[in-house]
Amino acid sequence: MQFAKVIGQVVSTRKEGKLEGLRLLIVDQLDEKLKPTGKTITSTDTVNARLDDIVLVCSSSSARMTSKTKGTSTDNSIVGIVETVSGKKRDWFKR
Amino acid sequence: MQFAKVIGQVVSTRKEGKLEGLRLLIVDQLDEKLKPTGKTITSTDTVNARLDDIVLVCSSSSARMTSKTKGTSTDNSIVGIVETVSGKKRDWFKR
Amino acid sequence: MQFAKVIGQVVSTRKEGKLEGLRLLIVDQLDEKLKPTGKTITSTDTVNARLDDIVLVCSSSSARMTSKTKGTSTDNSIVGIVETVSGKKRDWFKR
Amino acid sequence: MQFAKVIGQVVSTRKEGKLEGLRLLIVDQLDEKLKPTGKTITSTDTVNARLDDIVLVCSSSSARMTSKTKGTSTDNSIVGIVETVSGKKRDWFKR
Amino acid sequence: MQFAKVIGQVVSTRKEGKLEGLRLLIVDQLDEKLKPTGKTITSTDTVNARLDDIVLVCSSSSARMTSKTKGTSTDNSIVGIVETVSGKKRDWFKR
Question: Model pTM?
Fold first, then answer.
């Protein structure tokens, strides 16, 4: 999974049937120190993430392995809200 | 998913059987501000997208998770027409 | 899918059982204007492509979604011969 | 698979249901000489890896092919602790 | 698939159960002229490849589509030994 920050939202009224009812969030991928990498993707949300939340994004077929996204045409899902990121000697991030 | 703009169409008369009847569109991938990234791909279409439409493209095995592309040899599908893209303070795109 | 040009062929006598009987072609990936990108891959062939043919290559698990490659250990398949590629105002390629 | 070194840990209290109980480790990908590549990812752990361990990380759908991660939304799993890495003439790494 | 050269071997005594008994080889990816690209990966072996062999490596879920790797957590498998690579006018490689 990759760290990412929620930075926006996408509205699509005409979309593939199984995506109906799923929130589509724009996330900015972060490195392990939680610095932006400048790479953004649109991700389905499975944990009610909000703007500015630091999240874990899962990609490829595993993005569908959640109760909300099963069988849908999503290739990226937010699967967790990050609480702490700890390195060897100290925390790199605390929510 | 990735934002993309429809810029062309591909005709292939001799193709793998299950692809018959599917439209093959060329899309230019866009960043979150909807600026072209210069990376283009050929994508199956599931929402009747037209030239210049801003769309959402889903890749890998998830591209097959639609009623139109199930079981076909496609690795990219257009799964939504983008209406609005909203950042923290304002809309980045409105159709 | 990606555009590609067939530039060579691979012979492998000792290979994984399910690959027996499949043609392995070397393709050079092309951009949407059909210019070489310099990235080459070895791809199974499902449409009897020939040297210099402009083809569509499908990757990842979708490469197995053809009658010829079902269940085989291929990660790229040629799934179509390109006839025309049309942009907004004109054809970029005609066979 | 890729070589990687365990450099940290992630805590996420609010996460997709099936990820409950799985350890999420941050790993730094290494080249074949075990030098850091600077690319980090968050990976589920299936072998009780510890900080500084040199491990093998498996990605994409194969990350779910373990008894611990089956059916979960993970796209990277630590699947082995590296003991030795041997080149043609000598060992590049010994634990 | 990608061309690669076998350059080493990995020993991992503590690994995910289903990987037991599989050989893990380090391969250096090659371009179509069989020149090293400098990108190395660890791959399961399904054809008894040896050091210096030029092989075909299959990635992602297709790496599991062999009798030896079915259901295992591998994301790259050696699926063939390369005998000849032929371009338009001549052979680029002969074993």
Answer: 0.94
